[in-house]
Amino acid sequence: MREKALSILVLVMLGTVSAQKVTIPIPIGVSVAQTSNVALLGREQVIGAQIAEQFFNSQGGINGTPFKLYFEDTSGDEAGAINAFQTQINRNKVVAIIGPTLSQQAFAADKIAVEAKVPVIGPSNTAKGIPQIGDFVTRVSAPVAIVAPYAVKAALKLDPNIKKVAVMYAQNDAFSTSETGTFQDTVKAQGLEITTVQKFQTTDTDFTTQVTAALGTKPDLIIISGLAADGGNLVKQLRLAGFKGLLIGGNGLNTANVFPVCQQYCDGVIIAQAYSPTAPGSLNAAFRTVYKNTYKREPSQFTAQAFAGVQVVVTALRALDKQKKLDQWDLPELRVALMKQILSGRYNTPLGPISFGPDRDIIQESNYVAQIKMDADGKNGKFEFLK
Amino acid sequence: MDLLLQSLVNGLSIGSVYAIFALGYTLVFSILGIINFAHGAVFTLGAYFTYFLIGGQNNGTGLLAGAQLPFGLPFPVAIILGGALAGLVSVGLERVAFRPLRARGADPLLALVSSLGAGLVIVNLVQYLIGAEILSYPTNVYGHWAEQHPSLNLGTASFPIQIRTVQVIIFGVSLVILLALLYLINRTKMGKAMQAVAENPTTASLLGVSTDRVILFTFLLSGLLAGISGTLVATSFSISGPYFGLAYGLKGLAVIVLGGLGDIGGAVLGGFVLGLAEALVPGEYTAYKDAVAFLLLFLILMLRPQGLLGRRLIQKV
Amino acid sequence: MEAFFQTYGFLLVYMCLQALLGLSTYLPLMAGQLSLASSGFYAIGGYVAAILSTQVFHTSGAYPIGYLLLETLLAGLLSGVVAVVVGIPALRLRGIYLALATIAMVEILRVVSLNLSITGGAVGIFGIAQPFSSPLGYMWLVGPLLLLVMFFAYRLEGSRIGRAFIALREDELAADAMGINPTYHKVLAFALGAMLAGVVGAISAHFLNTWNARQGTFDVSIAVLAYVLIGGSRSFAGPVLGGMVLTALPEVLRPLKDLRFIVDGLLLMLAAIYLPQGLANPNWLARRKTAPVREKT
Predict the structure, then answer these.
(1) How far apart are the C-alpha atoms of C9 and B312, rounded to whole Å?
(2) Residue segments in chain A with a per-residue pLDDT below the cut of 50
(3) ipTM for the complex?
(4) Which residues of chain B neighbour A264 with C-beta distances below 8 Å?
């Protein structure tokens, strides 16, 4: 009897020192920029993740086991992202992390997750070299290289007489600087002439210097790579300075946040989209309805990508749970298996079907080109499908 | 030639934005010899106040998502009231962040830190309550005519010189504000008292000027100017979020030094000089536009440290 | 305990690096020079290390410490040279004017680094080789460096040169009359701070694994100035303490979620108002006081 009690005691003690079990509800980390001047993007991502949390938990979570999202703010800088990741990994003991918002932050923080062998899904990191940070890094944000050419072709279809193209981009934004490279290559490949390349900063509001310089070259088409506030102001100022030709807005302008900025002048802007609110699929329809009911506008790409990030993790966890109940796994073991499972799956997300290549980068099958149509009062608008 | 004229017009229009931002900034410096790092936040607040006073709805996802006042004031009333509210916030800041330091005769640099903290609080509070989203004024705030004519051609049909109507309005209003300010400072009793305190607080108080009242009034005026100019700029570019005004903070510093620290006319001149310098950057080099402002600042400091209009070196800090 | 170091290993080293940045602003301030250029030299140092380690020194496996030390040396030297070139004309300016001239330098450097191809534009330089296997490993380098610099600053405060610095801070005219060469000592103090900032930048580039134009900005300049002022600008302990406390604060406040930066700002304000001497109050450091602390009136 005493021996049995002793052996139980030993077993209990061994249990506490051996590797940690996964806690229930299953913790999944979301670390994006909830503060700082990047928060406009971060807030959209938080909303997307929250919608996904509710949606999939109401479906029974992970085969009956609920999961919980842990939000740890990265703020806008690299050190903040690393601190948030450390908290997720070591304190919240998450199985995977969705984040951070900026590519520059990803280059700093993802390495921490790679060392700790924790899967990371970049929701909006589009720079070259993100999956190459390490074995545990992937992303649901397509590098812009795929979308941009379609937008240029769509513009040429609308106006075959386009010859001269002016290109403008936000030089302090990683996303925009890589996107503009693709745009410029496409323009040249189409045999068009680039008349000028104008640079600005995402924090700028007045673009008259760049607008005057660009319009001085008499372009037929202007391509803008920037974010919502600066891109919207630029569109407005180009129109008010008398530009009548076609405008292409990059991926950063793919958000309803541009509507209040350029108001009626947004009308007609062609947008390269990695996500379209009007894309087919029942999941997108459900996601769009929840979003529209709460926020009275169309969900943005950043929101959809964060949703897709959570969805990928949840789907992969469901598959693992079928192999062995999640509460039986040791945490480090689950993290490693989860990364493998994530990369091997195919997911029907609001972004369309996605999977991951051997280089761990996203393979996104559907890309969209839309044109903005504003309401008569110029207050709200929608993205109308072109392709 | 038309390109040069267009650039000049551009420069004047953005210059007037820099100028009105800098006015309130330089006012506080002239009296206290300190730089109020919360000025950009008050500027932002003014734009938010007016937005809600005209009955705007919160598009943001903060705590007060979807909130709206039960009434909407006409824009001219709202902008003055919004400015007045910003003025009150500014007075509050003076009480909380500046006065305790002054009372102790602390290092003036500490005021820089306490105002930095105050600015951080305001910006994050706005983010918490309103959200990070962009808010825009309706296009009709300047009346029907301006809405129908959003841009004007100052040139001819073949040589167009385009300018946005909003920019013309901002230009006009900032000139009016400047004249009113010059009148107030040079012709009224309070203005004379302000000058006296700026010159020498101790002598001024010996002469019966209530230093505390002057300082309070200065902060009220600085906040009012910030609030009104924040609104004006927002009607042109939208409120891009809680960091809206902070983007001007750094340029604002350059402006007030260019013109001469603490000099009202200097702030306006500095604004126009900076605006013109940026507008005249050739098309191939616009990437360096932001560096131009600071190169100019550096050169001016080397050649004429007292600024363009400054008469003497102020050594308050 | 182990979990604590795992979670906060990065933060602890980062606190030390920020303390060193605080010291780099404190050194010119010792001679009365309000320079906000530290973040600019920090940026230069970071780029030196990032470019050398990704494009010049090709290694496999753990990055040799020797290379890292060589980078810090070069980063420090380059920063020092730039400091002398900029400092000789700029240090004729005083107070807020000097602060603004140095901010101008920082901003010009930022725009230039956005536009050069060698600095990687907005994306910057990433995948910088790692000499240590964990963030906490950097403590082997940063810890001794901090102690060394603190010891140097301590000795400096009591040395002939240090006393000349302090004399310049208290009254430049009088110091000049006493035969202290103002230009020489000001440029020396400025260059010492710049070299330190360059060294810190070089280490930080490895530590963060990436370097870009967002690292050396106006915001960083102001944050570092706050370290010195909140910590206390009258002894080397001030910037060290201020840098550590202000860096840790947002992480300590993390449980407050959305409210953390509101409270962070409030604490900054309260500290400025209620701790006018700084966290490192010279009164309780009185025993090693080298210069009489004069209350400003």
Answers:
(1) 51
(2) 1, 6, 9-18
(3) 0.93
(4) 139
